[in-house]
Amino acid sequence: MSKRRFVELSELKKGMCIDQSIVDSTGRILITRGSGLEEFHIAEMRNLRISGVYIAESDDLLMQEEDIQISPNAQQMVRKLSVEDRPALILRENVKKQVAEGIQFLFNNPDSEGFLEATNAVADDLMTAMVENDAVAVDVNALKVCDEYTFKHSVDVGSIAMVIGKTMNLPRENIREIGVAGLLHDLGKSKIPNEILNKPGRLTDEEFAVMKKHSLYGYEMIMDKPGLSQNIKMGVLQHHEKMGGNGYPMGVGGSKIGLIGRILSVADVYDALVTERPYKSAFSPRDAVEMIMAMSRDLDNNVIRAFLRSVILYPVGTVLRLSNGEAVRVVENVEGHPTRPKVVELTTGRFYDLANDMACASLLVP
Prior knowledge:
The chain is α+β, with helices and mostly antiparallel strands. It folds into 3 domains: 56 residues, Molybdopterin biosynthesis moea protein, domain 2, CATH 3.90.105.10; 67 residues, no CATH class; 220 residues, Hypothetical protein af1432, CATH 1.10.3210. It is built from 13 helices and 11 strands. A 4-stranded antiparallel beta sheet has the order 8-9-10-11, covered by helices on one side. Strand 8 and strand 9 form a beta hairpin. Helix 3 crosses helix 5, helix 4 crosses helix 6 and helix 10 crosses helix 11. It starts with a strand and ends in a 13-residue tail after the last strand.
């Protein structure tokens, strides 16, 4: 288990990992548990008159490098076997700022004359980031644009969905449409009452019925905007439909769900699972991937496979502890098997191919 200690506000420093969420009076998460603290976070807590917070000091899975003695043999094996990760989508800090400001403008000004221009600007920022480093993967640990859930979630979903589209070898224009639909997929939540949107507990059946209307509201808000393709509009409408026909708002399934809707559904479910909300704790990225793999009746299997090929859970160089207690370093990620990388044990230098060696079947990253 992670160790945590209470640190007074005056002792907080940039880079510390916060082990609790900071929520305002409306239930909006201001700082997400697990975030590395920035100076503006500390200033924000000072403004809220928060006396101190819990800080995570270590973790049994993602281990602290200084706590491990690495043998010369292991060091040699790591150097010999390390294979650089596939290029991942990276948003530079100035791009994150532009994207965060752009998405907030879209949600706060859906009827503005500048709506389409702002949408295109944010989508172009994401496309440029993807093209600049030929990104074919997403390091899910690096996705973070801002702390406000709705905005962060929209950018995360757009980013993940675009990389899935690229993994599926879709044309560039289709990938851009996917990004736009991802950015706008929760636009309809601006029509949902705040007391439902930010409720710090399970929704009643009546409240959930209201919440489910957000995808229809989003579609209605953009249906007459000529600068958005029908593919984008249907993606916004259908991102909560399920392959078995048990989704919403129309309850359609299979081929009646457009490709963008099927891609957004996977990206949306994943990001919702790994994000802490006032009414639920976040699942670990590994657990979320396992849950996505188990949703083959609800989600498009081809999209699931593309997602598994796109996601990086443990970047090369990460130090982990396996289910047998051994400390290992990741030396290569196996495409399509994000939970089972190739690793080197740090005492003996033993090599484990967790994805392909049946002798390693019982060894897991917990």
